[in-house]
DNA sequence: CCCATGTATGCCCGTTCATGCCCACATCGA
DNA sequence: TCGATGTGGGCATGAACGGGCATACATGGG
């Protein structure tokens, strides 16, 4: 049996049964657990399955985002502190743009109930979180929705951001450094981030220190375009001063 | 049972019952209270639940939820049957528009995992449901988000619908009748519905029979613009034939 | 026909994850 | 204010994971 056949069959089993587990599959197909894990990883990457510890669940069956909840465990405390610190940067009664990203999502979740703001976002999870916030006037940016990040991209999103002007944007990046600027793996997403960045008077970057020095495929701006960087104390003082020399205020929490 | 499955189930229980508590959940799932606490913390971090001492309540349930919870349970069986029947109207490999509404949301949740479709929607809950679906190319319609329905309205939404052409639209209405057509309480929402209606070659209306004869403030179309009405058997045969005389096919399930 | 290259799989082993247990501390209700 | 109950941190454990390497088989060009 060829690997693609096996994967096809695994997918069928997962959809039929609602779940699969590594050891039973290994037994079933007479291969080792490693091979099954490789299969599941491939199917997960293809977006067809959701990998969980011990097995997998067909994509589309859970209406919450395990990958988001999972990534939440990575540097969760730092992200929380960063989000808390970002609350101080909220405009009073103004307009802000929220980029897609787990740290920014935390900020959205931490918005005080008595806040009165206009929020613009192209992130589906963030919009869902703010849709019932009594003080938030929410504006959703449309577009094609990327499965992995659940964020809207492409023409509609770019045009919409081109038509607005906000007081502040809270931006996320997968990598940042003084030399290579702000980067993210996906080109389409980078384009939207660039548009969001250009639509705000003030740019606040929320990124934990593990992102520093990382470079990804698509660059959407330079650190000099960022007015304030909020990160955690994992950023070395030398790096911080180097960034501040570029005109970006740095806040380590 | 995997942790994400358990969390999904906890979320469902919380939404159904309005609240959950640690000890009952621990008993229910045959795990210790610590594990449940960890689950609740994860769901809290993901913004789906709000942790309280001894348990948790669904997020954002405080102001608008009773309304939605009630609507969810009202005529749940009928809505499910209607949604199931609507599955037969899906285009093959085509494009469809999903209007905002609980019945349409059920249709979205019932889409087979192996379906391959392009879906356009201005409803946040429906988008959230489909964002994870492997076979769905999702396009989100932007705009101002109404708190009550969590649907995008206003200029951006109208323009976006004006730019597309879909095979079919699955429409919802708060009231319908041969005399007064399709109505809904909100003007802005009616405008979007009208735009969605105009953007599709075929119009399918999903509405349980309790909606028949009801009239609301804003009218967004006539029953003659509807190609197919799917409703439940609560619609009297006379009413059904009256509607069919207007050129609308009627399916009672 | 041969050998270089690539791919699928298996095996080993240090690392991570989910869960349970324990205990000091916080919170709630009377 | 006090006892009961819930909470979160630390630690232990067994299962699952994944990177690195070896093997075997297929592929493809000379």
Automatic annotation (TrEMBL), chains A, B:
Q: Which Gene3D superfamilies match?
A: 3.40.50.1360, Winged helix-like DNA-binding domain superfamily/Winged helix DNA-binding domain
Give all residue intervals belonging to the HTH deoR-type domain.
3-58
UniProt keyword annotation of Transcription present: yes
Q: Which domain of life is it from?
A: Bacteria
Role description: Repressor of the lactose catabolism operon. Galactose-6-phosphate is the inducer.
GO terms of molecular function: DNA-binding transcription factor activity; transferase activity
Record keywords: Transcription included?
A: yes
Q: Which UniProt keywords apply?
A: Repressor, Transcription, Transcription regulation, Transferase
Record Pfam families? DeoRC, HTH_DeoR
This chain's protein is named Lactose phosphotransferase system repressor
Q: Where is the signal peptide?
A: none
Q: Which PROSITE patterns match?
A: HTH_DEOR_2
């Amino acid at each position: 049996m060829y690997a693609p056949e096996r994967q096809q069959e695994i997918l069928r089993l997962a959809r039929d049964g609602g779940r699969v587990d590594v050891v039973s599959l290994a037994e079933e197909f007479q291969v080792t657990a490693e091979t099954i894990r490789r299969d599941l990883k491939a199917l997960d990457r293809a977006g067809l399955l959701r990998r969980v510890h011990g097995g997998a669940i067909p994509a589309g069956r859970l209406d919450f985002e395990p990958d988001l909840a999972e990534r939440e465990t990575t540097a969760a405390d730092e992200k929380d502190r960063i989000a808390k610190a970002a609350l101080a940067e909220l405009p009073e009664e103004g307009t802000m743009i929220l980029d897609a990203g787990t740290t920014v999502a935390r900020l959205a979740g931490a918005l005080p109930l008595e806040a009165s703001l206009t929020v613009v976002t192209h992130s589906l999870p963030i919009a869902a979180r703010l849709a019932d916030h009594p003080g938030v006037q929410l504006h959703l940016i449309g577009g094609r929705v990327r499965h992995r990040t659940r964020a809207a991209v492409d023409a509609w999103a770019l045009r919409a951001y081109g038509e607005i002007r906000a007081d502040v944007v809270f931006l996320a990046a997968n990598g940042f450094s003084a030399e290579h600027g702000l980067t993210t793996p996906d080109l389409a997403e980078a384009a939207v981030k660039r548009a969001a960045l250009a639509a705000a008077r003030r740019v606040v970057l929320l990124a934990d220190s593990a992102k520093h020095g990382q470079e990804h495929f698509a660059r959407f701006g330079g650190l000099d375009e960022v007015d304030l960087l909020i990160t955690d104390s994992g950023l070395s003082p030398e790096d911080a001063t180097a960034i501040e020399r570029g005109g970006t205020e740095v806040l380590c929490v």
